[in-house]
Amino acid sequence: MKDNDKGKTGAKGKRPRLLPGLKVADGYTRHPFDLEFGVRTSGLIAGRHLASGNKHDRHNTAYYGVAPSVFEAIVARWRRYRPLPPIDEFTFVDLGAGMGRAVLLASQFPFRAAIGVELNPTLARIARKNLALWRAAGRALAPMKIVCRDAVDFEFPAGPCVTFLFNPFGAPVLRQIVASWSRTCAGRARQLDILYVNNEQESVLERQAGFARLFQGQVRRSRADAIADHRILANQPEGEYASANYEDCSIYRWVGTALNS
Ligand SMILES: C[S@@+](CC[C@H](N)C(=O)[O-])C[C@H]1O[C@@H](n2cnc3c(N)ncnc32)[C@H](O)[C@@H]1O
């Protein structure tokens, strides 16, 4: 797979090919988050353009960075659901990290660590560069890293964890992940919370015994994010993704102790 880093040239002096969705002709527009912080997290890449050779590629929804206002609102809401260990005991894990926008945002909280797991190697490479820029600018309160791996194979660290999902994959992948959490958490009191933005596969979590839903509802984008997202989505050549001024979200917590799968 070719790198799509801007400004670099290939062996024969040619610019590497950009992933579909990252060209101006594809409707590419820089999000204000990137303009403000000098990182590269903009763009909309359909799942079919993110082939990595993995059997779960076909369940990849798309790459799209979360609206910072939605991210901040869902984290603020999560922090209201007590009792919680202090935030500095939690590891934040973004399953489907893309170019790392949510990991960058998470690192502004004093998490024990902020980890992004991304299947596509080109996106993971861009994310690592973004993390390096963020660190160098002194913006990270938490240590950050990107792991290039299928989310199904990611082993969660010990201790309290909060998982972030911005509609990264279809039901078959999410089902495997939550079933595996349920097996590893079975019989134990484990602090494992899930923040699910654009919760299209909500029914998978609803059906998985051991998890309780703490919140379900719409989280509104800020005006600036709504304008930016609308501009990007309105420019899509194939117009396949819709935009609203809010995201349907939910928050789940592991409360079970029964082995159910
Ligand atoms: C909608 S983007 C979210 C990006 C990021 N979480 C954010 O909020 O800015 C979903 C990402 O999940 C990734 N993804 C899809 N299936 C995956 C899998 N099985 N394992 C890891 N990452 C996956 C996609 O490549 C894509 O980058």
3D structure, described in words:
By secondary structure, the chain is an alpha/beta fold. It has one domain: Vaccinia Virus protein VP39 (Rossmann fold, 3-Layer(aba) Sandwich). Helix content is 28%, strand content 20%. It contains seven helices and nine strands; from the N terminus they run H-E-E-H-E-H-E-H-E-E-H-E-H-E-H-E. The N terminus is likely disordered. The structure holds S-adenosylmethionine. S-adenosylmethionine binds next to strand 2, helix 3 and strand 4.
SSE order and pairing:
Layout: H1 32-37, E1 44-46, E2 62-64, H2 68-79, E3 91-95, H3 101-106, E4 113-118, H4 121-136, E5 144-148, E6 161-166, H5 171-185, E7 192-197, H6 202-207, E8 211-220, H7 223-234, E9 246-254
Parallel strand pairs: 3-4, 3-6, 4-5, 6-7
Antiparallel strand pairs: 1-2, 7-9, 8-9
The structure holds S-adenosylmethionine.
S-adenosylmethionine binds next to strand 2, helix 3 and strand 4.
Helix content: 25-40%
CATH homology superfamily: Vaccinia Virus protein VP39
Overall average residue pLDDT:
90
Number of helices: 7
Q: Please tell me the total number of domains.
A: 1
How do the SSEs run, as a string of H and E? HEEHEHEHEEHEHEHE
Computed Rg: 18 Å
Strand order of the main beta sheet, please?
5-4-3-6-7-9-8
Q: What summary fits the major beta sheet?
A: 7 strands, mixed
- CATH first level: Alpha Beta
